[in-house]
Amino acid sequence: MRQKIDTKGILLVMWQHLRKYAGRWFVLLGFIAIAKGLDVLAPLFYKRFFDLMAGEIPATPEALPALLVGTITMVLIIHGGSWLSWRLSSAINLWLQPRVMTDIVQTGHAYLHNNSYKFFSNSFTGSLIRKVNRLARSFEVLADQIQYTFVPIAITIFGYMIVLWTRSAILGAILLAWIILYLILNTAFAFWKTKYDFMASKIDSEATGVLADSITNAITVKLFTGKKFEKDLYEDVTDRLRKARTFTWGLGEIMDSFQGGMMVLIEFVIMYYAIKLWQDGVLTIGDFALIQGYLVGLFSMLWDIGRSIRRTFEAMADADEMVEILNNPHDVVDQKKAQELDPQNGRIVFDNVYFSFNKTRRILKGLNLEIQPGEKVALVGPSGAGKSTITKLLFRFYDVERGKIYLGNQNIARVTQKSLRANIALVPQEPILFHRTVLENIRYGRRDATDEEVIEAARQAHADEFIQELPQGYETFVGERGVKLSGGERQRVAIARAILKNAPILVLDEATSSLDSESESLIQDALEKLMKGKTTIVIAHRLSTIMMMDRILVIDGGKLIDTGTHTQLLRKKGGIYKKLWEIQAGGFAK
Question: Which of 253, 276, 513, 574 is the most exposed place for a label (fewest CB within 10 A)?
Answer without folding.
Answer: 574
